[in-house]
Amino acid sequence: MRPKPTDNQSLLFTASLEQILDHNHPLFKLAHAIDWSEFEQTFGRLYDPGHGRPAKPIRLMVSLHYLKHAYDLSDEDVVARWVENPYWQCFCGCTHFQHELPIDPSLMTKWRQKVQAEGMDKLLEVTIKTGLKTGTLKKTELNKLAVDTTVQEKAITFPTDAKLYHRMRQKLVKKAKDCGIELRQSYVRKSKQALVMHGRYAHANQYRRARKQLKKLKTYLGRVTRDIERKVASAAQLNEDFKELLFLLHRLLAQ
User: What pLDDT, on a 0 to 100 scale, did the predictor assign at position 210?
Assistant: First the structure.
């Protein structure tokens, strides 16, 4: 069911938050700069108008998510700190100080599931509009976006010698194929098999056998390298194409 309007008649003789808070505080200014009606129009259609228990105010839920991401807090922490901070309560649309938790923290997760990714994009859109409106953000700053992916999951494996040998041989074979160079042997199957066995032996702490497979990988790489060097030495253009790759290759073999 849609949220019901807040009734503040019972607090008529209590000092309002606007009377006791500093109007120059960033959250106080931001609370009056954001167009909260956009959220009412966007998220209001997600609620059933006549069935179920009345939902929490949309502004409250939106504001709590803003505070959660602004201060890097969990759902439980942002709800707990809300009771202690009058500026947070004012930002969430409260006119008087509250002494009870605004919601159960589990409602934060349920609300995110309700609005889905499109709803969170709406929060970002209004944030950008507010930044442009208040002058804290310039249009020129939106031409280039810097994204911090420090904690984002990436498919990066640990660069062991065996993997480096195998990967470098793959690059050499691919480069030779692109340049039309026919190799005596590419060691595609043997190199892959040696890499797999090296990983198995190392996992089983059989390091002597693992070193033998590592030596095989290095030998395969060396053979492909010498084969390519013989064939590109006479062609100046091919030599330039392979120059950087061969430099990295000899550096790898020497380390």
Answer: 92
Question: Residue 255 corresponds to which amino acid?
Answer: Q
Quick check: 151 pLDDT over 70? no
- Residues 6 or more apart whose CB falls under 8 angstroms from that of 3 comprise 47, 54, 55, 56, 57, 58
Is 0.90 surpassed by the pTM of this model?
A: no
Q: What is the Cα–Cα distance from 134 to 229, expressed in whole angstroms?
A: 63
Do you know the residue count of the chain?
255
Cα 177 from chain centroid (whole Å): 37
pLDDT higher than threshold 70 for residue 117? yes
39 contacts: CB under 8 Å, gap ≥ 6 = 58, 59, 62, 122, 126
The rounded distance, in Å, linking the Cα atoms of 179 and 66 is 54
Q: What is the pLDDT of residues 89-109, one digit of tens each?
A: 999 988 888 888 889 999 999
CA distance 202 to 198: 6
| Residues 6+ away with beta carbon under 8 Å from 142 | 128
